[in-house]
Amino acid sequence: MELMIAERIKQYRKERNMTQDALAQALSVSPQSVSKWECGDGYPDITLLPAIANYFEVTVDELIGNDEISAKEDVQKNYFNVVNKLSHDEQLELALKYHKKYPRNWHIATSLMREITRHHRDKLEEYKPLLNEIAERILKECTDSVSRRNAVKSMCMVCDEDEVGNWMKRDTRFYHEERLDIWEERYKLMGDDEQYWIYRYAGNFLRVAHTLDRLNKHPDYRGKPELCIEWHGMNLRMLDCVVNRADGDEIPDGWIGEYAFVYIGWQQDTLDLASAKKGTLIWKKCLR
Hints:
Layout: H1 5-15, H2 20-27, H3 31-39, H4 49-55, H5 60-64, H6 68-80, H7 88-101, H8 106-119, H9 124-141, H10 145-158, H11 164-168, H12 176-190, H13 193-216, H14 225-243, H15 256-270, H16 273-287
Helix pairs in contact: 2-3, 7-8, 8-9, 8-10, 9-10, 10-12, 12-13, 13-14, 14-15, 15-16
């Protein structure tokens, strides 16, 4: 059997942004020993293996590369193939067990985070330290974009309200629809129906507006102001429906920017000066 100690030690050390000297100091060995291990010129003493594995928070089998195939089979067969057939209490128990067994399996880690944040909110105070620890490790060590974003989304479900924006900034940019979806799910889990429906309507409107915007950019619309007028009219009617606004009513503060965008865009597509003037007035109100 081919041992993978050299590759694993080097991989784990680099993931932690450590030098060979720093790792040697942490393990109470010489830097030359670490260098030899990583070059494949020798193996650590067998009595050191548990200490090295514990330091990197992996099993000895993972460290030497003995269980890579068996671990994948175990996770697929005994976790992912059965977890959704269990009750939520059983799912939590199984997820905790497998996260402890394979702490570097990010799919299990994010599965555990989702189970806690969505179905065990009565235990959040107990599990918040674990959730934060998993999220920080994933953002530091994991390169899989899906796992990183899932970890961020789970933290947005449980952190304080003023921390949500900071968590979203911890990873790649979230688009407006994704941000609205996160707030929508957060309020749904919190049981705040009023805020939930506000973000639900806003998200639905944004998706429809983007669809219409793509339609407006279709070549058939270019040079045809009458079609642009029809499109902007639909956009305006959607806005009125979403905010429950009748003709002549004041524009709600939270939607001033959207109305200004529609009217100014209307003028740009149709040379409608009246719409431009109205959009400018709305935008000035937004800036006050």
